[in-house]
Design goal:
It contains twelve helices and five strands. By secondary structure, it is of the alpha/beta class. A five-stranded mixed beta sheet has the order 2-1-3-4-5, sandwiched between helices. Helix 4 links the parallel strand 4 and strand 5. Helix 1 packs parallel to helix 8 and helix 7 packs antiparallel against helix 11. The longest helix is centred in the last third of the chain and has 67 residues. The C terminus is likely disordered.
Length: 357
């Protein structure tokens, strides 16, 4: 290609085109065709009839459902509140009941209703649906936490570009302190959105801020550290890590039981899932499972601190190496100038001798 300017433009177009492909594959792969995939449900009852019914449901659904039986309705409610099952069916000849927890997943509750409503219809009786963990009225679908995740994520990974590009001349410790400050501001914005602005969190707002800070700080430190090595490819990498793989596996729209195995596996340890499930635990499920999600976010933050520390050591070694090379180059130039001066003096002496003769 003859034009350097055109080659430069085309090279920079690679990043947005890869983003287009990646976003399409990730979002459409995760969200376009949700269907049950080992969706955990329970049937209440210990009598042989209940066990036969549960086995019949399992045989009919195949891999779409994981069916278990529990002794009592109270046990089923406990499983729902610990998010071990998505729904629980209480068989009855006159008034069958389906228990759900829509705060865990509105889509999951809907999927379970689609499974058991026809069962009651075949018996000719209406199905009563009881929601044991309903989201607040300000967030009726429970999906507000997913959009909160998006806001905090964008504020975090977009700040990496500013810290990496505009702050490249700053020492790593200064950039690290800036990342710490930015994470506090971003998480504060998230808390304001979750509390006073949209009223997603009616209590434990300080806890929501704390989890948002852990989440944001992890992203910022990973990004600041990676920028040292990846340079202009940092933005694409951050999009892959914290948008394409992160939003799709967070469980904010569809929990892993409604996705394929790839996103379900990521949900177990990715930081977006840690944030969404942690805030859910805090707001709706009495802190059940909160410790595990907090440790997930802490692990990502520790990884970010490690990447930043390695980047700092690398930059320090590079500066030392560059300073030594500059010193050697300066010494070589000085030697050349000295050698050049001696040659001129010798030439002048020869001229004087010649004139004297």
């Amino acid at each position: 290609m003859r034009s350097p300017a055109l080659r430069h433009v085309l090279t920079h177009l690679i990043t947005p085109l890869l983003m287009c492909i990646g976003m399409g594959l990730a979002y459409m792969g995760a969200f376009v065709t949700p269907e049950p995939n080992h969706l955990p449900v329970a049937v209440v009852g210990t009598a042989p009839k209940a066990k036969v019914f549960a086995q019949t449901v399992k045989d009919t659904a195949g891999d779409k459902l994981d069916v278990r039986t529990v002794a009592s309705r109270a046990d089923a409610v406990d499983l729902l509140r610990s998010r071990e099952v998505t729904g629980a069916y209480v068989p009855s000849a006159k008034a069958p009941e389906l228990l759900v927890a829509s705060a865990a997943s509105d889509m999951g509750a809907t999927a379970v209703e689609k499974v058991f409503t026809p069962v009651a219809a075949r018996a000719g009786v209406p199905l009563k649906v009881t929601d044991v963990a309903r989201p607040v009225a300000d967030d009726p679908t429970g999906q507000g936490l997913f959009f909160l995740l998006i806001a905090v994520s964008i504020g975090s990974y977009a700040s990496v570009a500013a810290l990496g590009a505009a702050g490249a001349a700053l020492a790593m410790r200064v950039r690290a302190l800036l990342a710490l400050g930015v994470s506090a501001v971003v998480s504060g914005i998230g808390a304001l959105l979750a509390g006073p602005v949209f009223h997603l969190a009616h209590h434990d707002l300080a806890g929501v801020w704390g989890m948002a800070w852990l989440y944001s700080a992890g992203i910022l430190f990973i990004g600041v550290g990676l920028h040292t090595f990846l340079k202009r490819w940092t933005t694409l990498t951050m999009m892959v890590l914290f948008v394409m793989l992160n939003f799709t596996s967070s469980g904010g729209l569809f929990r892993p039981e409604l996705q394929n195995g790839f996103f379900g596996t990521l949900h177990a340890f990715w930081n977006g899932a840690g944030f969404v499930e942690g805030v859910r635990s805090l707001l709706y499920f009495g802190d059940d499972g909160l410790a595990r999600t907090v440790w997930t976010l802490v692990a990502w933050l520790l990884a970010g601190l490690a990447v930043t520390a390695v980047a700092g050591l690398y930059e320090r070694a590079r500066r030392t190496r560059q300073a030594r090379q500059d010193a050697e180059a300066e010494a070589a130039r000085e030697a050349a100038r000295t050698a050049g001066g001696e040659t001129e003096e010798e030439a002048e002496e020869e001229i004087e001798e010649t004139v004297g003769v």
